[in-house]
Design a protein that fits this description.
Layout lengths: L2 H5 L3 H21 L1 E6 L4 H4 L6 E3 L18 E5 L3 H11 L4 E4 L6 H13 L3 E4 L14 H9 L3 E8 L2 E3 L7 E3 L4 E6 L11 H27 L3
Parallel strand pairs: 1-9, 2-5, 2-6, 3-4, 3-5
Antiparallel strand pairs: 6-9, 7-8
Helix pairs in contact: 2-4
Length: 226
């Protein structure tokens, strides 16, 4: 076991690191020029008029806790993995709740908790390519959740002009201070409860395509002139 994995075994170490990471995210947020791109139909969901299923890629997770609609608590689906626990503790400092589970472990219990959360009128966030990838390839879980709940999927992403990409499977983007950050929200995607297997696959592809297009838009915004 590596030193990093041994270190993250201890709850106190995880808590301390999560606190430091939350401070760093706030530092990046407040020292960066922020640009917002919101597509048609997404504004009511971002203003908290309705709840939705927010979808962002695992590698574009870092700044998402700072983008929360008012009046509706956000709940993020996080895996049971050690990294998932660290993420859960970090986003907790932003008032974001966690639902433990993934498509490979704890999925059934997680879906039940998601249904309860949506019924209460609160928001859900899911990383459709997590927790193990492939990178920016949507898994069917998000379509299943959208179909069961009847709530729209809202693609969300961010990009930063000053960043470092980790060598992890998701090429995790670490935003650096004093850059330009683009927060992008795509048009809501509705998934009919009447879809058959072929229809579900088409819906999955639609979500994946919309999310990847949004990443391209965010990257283009931060690469343009200030």
């Amino acid at each position: 076991m590596s030193f990093k994995k041994r270190l993250l075994k201890y709850p106190r170490t995880q808590s301390a690191l999560a606190f430091i990471l939350s401070l760093y995210i706030r530092l990046v947020y407040w020292t960066s020029k922020r640009v917002y791109y919101v597509e048609a139909g997404a504004k009511p969901l971002m203003e908290g008029s309705e709840n939705a299923i927010f979808a962002f890629w695992h590698g574009r997770l870092m700044m998402c806790p700072t983008l929360e609609p008012p009046g509706r608590k956000m709940h993020v689906l996080i895996s049971h993995h050690r990294d998932g626990i660290l993420i859960s503790k970090t986003i907790g400092h932003f008032g974001v709740a966690t639902i433990a589970g993934s498509s490979s472990k704890g999925g059934s219990a997680a879906v039940k908790e998601i249904l309860r959360t949506i019924k209460k009128g609160e928001n859900i966030s899911i990383t459709p390519d997590g927790p193990r990838g492939p990178m920016q390839i949507a898994q069917m879980g998000i379509v299943t959740v959208a179909k069961l709940t009847g709530r729209p999927v809202l693609p969300v992403t961010f990009s930063s002009s000053r960043n470092r990409r980790m060598r992890s499977w998701d090429r995790f983007m670490v935003a650096l201070p004093f850059g330009k950050i683009a927060f992008c929200v795509g048009a809501p995607i509705l998934v009919s409860r009447e879809l058959d297997a072929d229809g579900e696959e088409q819906a999955r592809l639609a979500v994946e395509s919309a999310m990847n297009r949004l990443v391209e838009i965010a990257d283009a915004i931060v690469s343009s002139a200030p």
